[in-house]
């Protein structure tokens, strides 16, 4: 039987955090709409087409139309309407920004659009390094806080630090570890409280579904402080071959990001964030994950052990058996 409870809309629902939020919501039986420009690799009836730069994709979401509706006939739509109850209005939305320094504009426009269609709660994924009022998500953070202070929305902002998954899923890290046995950064010996995307998702699910909204920001940090040198040492032990951390200048890292397809302005911002780490910008921890979810946050080594095959394939293909 199809649930008629109010669904949660997860923007960027096929991404690193969004896909995990959608999975956790589904496991709890909470109706979920997965929104993205490209559909998931497998068929998902709950997927809706969404593009920050195309407002024409916004309205159909609130009319209960999925991305697959475009290819159905009028007779099929009529049969569906007879067999399924009418969905309830969306009341909670998880916001993930587009990779653009001007992405705050469409995000704020979309928030107002969604409010006009009855959405009550907005949970924004920002970043530990971006304060309210800062660039991109910082401006959206400030806007949600202002609306919340006026009692116009329920809101929350998650400010996670650097993801553990970056090391295995971002091509710039994954490929250099596989083919060069190197990992590059501009952080020198700066430490980071690497956080699991699974833990971010768990905090997000609470923020989206709890009876009371956070109406505040949560800094979402991992349980231990690790530098890139320490990450390299850990990977050396796990993979059985020497992994070296190569420290780059901010300009060198920016060029590296652009070679892997990152837009130039966004690469410059990401490089500046990494450079700030060497001066202690991420040298902090907290207990937000445990206090919100009741579960201890995941450690980097456990994650690395679970995905170590992604770093071994290239050397195996080359017929090289590396030893530390």
From TrEMBL:
Gene3D superfamilies for the chain: NAD(P)-binding Rossmann-like Domain (3.40.50.720), UDP-galactose 4-epimerase, domain 1 (3.90.25.10)
Name the UniProt record assigns to this protein: NAD(P)-binding domain-containing protein
Family annotation (SUPFAM superfamilies): NAD(P)-binding Rossmann-fold domains (SSF51735)
Similarity section: Belongs to the fgaFS/easG family.
NAD(P)-binding domain location: 12-210
Keywords: Alkaloid metabolism, Oxidoreductase
Spans annotated as Disordered: 66-89
Pfam families: NAD_binding_10 (PF13460)
Keyword Oxidoreductase: yes
Pathway recorded for this protein: Alkaloid biosynthesis; ergot alkaloid biosynthesis
Polar residues bias: start-end ranges: 66-85
GO molecular function: oxidoreductase activity
NCBIfam families: ergot_EASG (TIGR03649)
InterPro entries named among the record's database cross-references: Ergot_Alk_Oxidoreductase, Ergot_alkaloid_biosynthesis, NAD(P)-bd_dom, NAD(P)-bd_dom_sf
Species of origin: Triangularia setosa
Gene Ontology terms describing biological process: alkaloid metabolic process
